[in-house]
Design goal:
- The chain has 385 residues and is an alpha/beta fold.
- Among the domains are: 63 residues, Winged helix-like DNA-binding domain superfamily/Winged helix DNA-binding domain (Arc Repressor Mutant, subunit A, Orthogonal Bundle), CATH 1.10.10; 162 residues, 3-Layer(aba) Sandwich (Rossmann fold), CATH 3.40.50.2300.
- It is built from 11 helices and 18 strands.
- The chain has a 6-stranded parallel β-sheet with strand order 5-4-6-7-8-14, sandwiched between helices. It has a 4-stranded parallel β-sheet with strand order 10-9-11-12, with helices on both faces. Strands 1-3-2 form a 3-stranded antiparallel β-sheet.
- The longest helix is centred in the N-terminal third of the chain and has 17 residues.
- It is elongated.
- 44% of the residues are buried.
């Protein structure tokens, strides 16, 4: 079991490098403001790759031991200087929504005089967890953490909760402990997608996604209930789970291809596929084209997120727009409340999503499918939990 208090039999190279630099700073006469060096110089001294040194430096910055001065290098930090600094931890900033969440949080931080430190794990799960575990001993007064939807991530969240460190979780609501969180109305989004497809005459709708993520499970539940409300049978065999022994931050394209082919290769294939997010729908476009299938003439496609590339696909992807910027703002507002009053009860907010219609969905007609016009529907209001 991975927890913030667990130990490992061996440490990654970057942690060993961080330990050596830490000892140099703490066990010598180094004074606040003393120059330590540049990443390039440290990489040469340690005989490791520059990226390894960068990861080590990020850990030491999080501890408040050193600071980076743009254009100058690395310096010993004055431990007596107190600042209200908040950490935003993202698994991978290549995922555009994480940038939008960060920008939303920063917009509130600027108003309140809060310093933001944005941490990008670059798709490295261990790196993300290490930074989470070090938060209570860092200079950060609180954190906004984007969920990685995995058992080991949940254990790290439990560890922070036990230590009483103020944080807000984004894109996941914990089920068995009280943790402040901000999500989109995933269930409502699934309900909207299902109702829109059913209104176009679709009765066989497949769902392809990462069912380990609770947010994805809620989207599926919304689709299922939309079909039940319409008196339609829900075919469980058309639900395909991508999360079979997959790295949470790895490349899922092969599994997406496999599941899409499995769904569309059946004797009675679905007339529509609801993908759990736009990042899953995008590679599926290639798979469908490779199978000789046209979107939306042969199969309608719906995604979730409305990432910047969705409208540039051919045809444009119909999707549910998550309010990522607003989610970041709300997360920062909740965090500031907890920083001011650590004993305040946890709060969970679910923000409404918006169905965006583009050319990837079409009505089922006797002579085929007829594309519907593009447009944005009004969001279904979600209640704060």
């Amino acid at each position: 079991m991975r927890t913030c208090t667990s130990t490992k039999t061996s440490s990654p190279t970057f942690m060993l490098v961080a330990d050596r630099i830490r000892k140099r700073v703490t066990k010598t006469d180094a004074q606040p403001g003393d120059f330590i060096g540049s990443e390039y110089e440290l990489a040469r001294q340690e005989k490791v790759a520059r990226m390894t040194v960068r990861r080590a430096i990020e850990l030491l910055i999080n501890e408040g031991l050193i600071e980076r001065r743009p254009g100058k290098g690395l310096y010993v930090r004055d431990r007596g200087v107190t600042t209200r600094m908040v950490q935003i931890i993202a698994g991978n900033l290549e995922w555009e929504p994480s940038l939008q969440v960060s920008r939303g949080a920063k917009s509130v931080a600027v108003e309140k005089g809060i310093q933001i430190q944005l941490y990008d794990a670059h798709g490295d799960l261990e790196r993300d967890l290490d930074v989470m575990c070090q938060l209570p001993d860092s200079q950060a007064k609180g954190a906004i953490i984007l969920s990685l939807h995995s058992a080991v991530f949940n254990e790290a969240v439990y560890g922070l909760k036990i230590k009483g460190f103020p944080f807000v979780l984004v894109d996941q609501k914990m089920q068995d402990i009280e943790v402040s969180s901000v999500t989109a109305d995933n269930y409502g989004g699934g309900l909207q997608a299902g109702r829109a497809l059913i209104a176009q005459g679709h009765q066989r709708i497949a769902f392809i996604g990462d069912l380990v993520a609770t947010t994805v499970g809620e989207r599926l539940a919304g689709l299922r209930d939309a079909m039940a409300d319409a008196g339609l049978n829900f075919d469980r065999s058309l639900v395909l789970d991508l999360a079979e022994d997959k790295d949470r931050l790895g490349d899922w394209s092969g599994r997406i291809d496999q599941c899409t082919r499995e769904a569309m290769g059946r004797p009675s294939p679905p007339t529509a596929i609801f993908f759990s997010c736009d990042a899953v729908a995008r590679p599926a476009y290639r798979t469908l084209a490779g199978m000789g299938l046209r979107i939306p003439q042969d199969v309608s496609v719906v995604g979730f997120d409305d990432d910047p590339l969705a409208e540039w696909l051919t045809p444009g992807l119909s999707t549910l727009r998550q309010p990522f910027f607003e989610m970041g703002r709300v997360a920062m507002e909740l965090l500031l409340k907890h920083m001011a009053d650590p004993a305040a009860p946890a709060e969970s907010r679910a923000l409404p999503v918006t169905l965006v219609r583009r050319g990837s969905t079409a009505a089922v007609e006797a002579g085929g499918m007829e594309p519907v016009g593009a447009g944005v529907l009004e969001p279904v209001e979600a209640e704060a939990v």
